[in-house]
Amino acid sequence: MQRVMRMSEWIDPALVKAFEAEQTNAYRVCTSEEGWVERYGTDVLVSYKDEGTRERLTTELYLWSLAVNFKFTRVFARFLPKQNAQRESPRLVVGDAGANLQTIATERGLQYGIDFAAGYSVGLFIDQRQNRSFVREIRPKTLLNCFAYTCAFSVAGADAGAHTVSVDLSKKSLDRGRENFALNSHSTASHRFVAEDVMEFLPRLARKGEKFDVIILDPPTFSRTHRGKAFQVERDFETLLLKALEVAERKSRILLSTNCTSLNERALEVMARFCLKATRRAGSVHPEPPLLDFPPGAGAPTLWLTLR
Asked: From CA 291, how far away is CA 294, in angstroms rounded?
């Protein structure tokens, strides 16, 4: 497939058909400087910086859906605040207000639960689609998913036959992760779900001698433990990677990704090379393949670190 979208444009019908052919109905359909629109199954989420943008994108959505023959059920709107503390759950703007606010999205044949009432994030980060597919392609035996959220990477790993460990502070998110396993008919018997601080859990894994073929590091910009300890990605990502390298198997792969605007791919590469040198490990870095539904620079900066 060729890239068919430029900034501020809606994706072409040909790309919609390509997603349908690969059994994907969760993707970005429009990006502008003031907001964006995403599809999750038959539902749509409009993210906006001001009410004028919300109204414009919603109106354009109707025109685009006619062009691509997409019949959506509901439209949710989510304000994009400048401060994380101001984030709120999306609100329903089109559709039955009495209906269940949950749905299911499909990504390359795998199913993920979406909940528009559960918080600012609805349950699946679609800009990680290629990375989840890469996990399925390389078929690891073991996968450690740090800051696992609803365990989408763990589901992808399990589908490829991996034994997974999913770590997140939120028990509720991990419960949703178990539900994602069930949606895909995967037993959780050989998978662990750990509701703990990743920074404290990684050294314990190292002391036990546990090693992993794939490690997912996609931390939030900021989080705070129940005991008040803060994680700030700009300050702590390097320490996180150093800890992860202690449990990385030989020839393993580590995903480095963040939504923090001050950490671009170049910054991630510099950090990765420093950590390799500090731990006397050898490896190489390569970027994530381009996302066809995202303009350049619109998704989370991402690198894969491959150890030798």
From this structure: 5
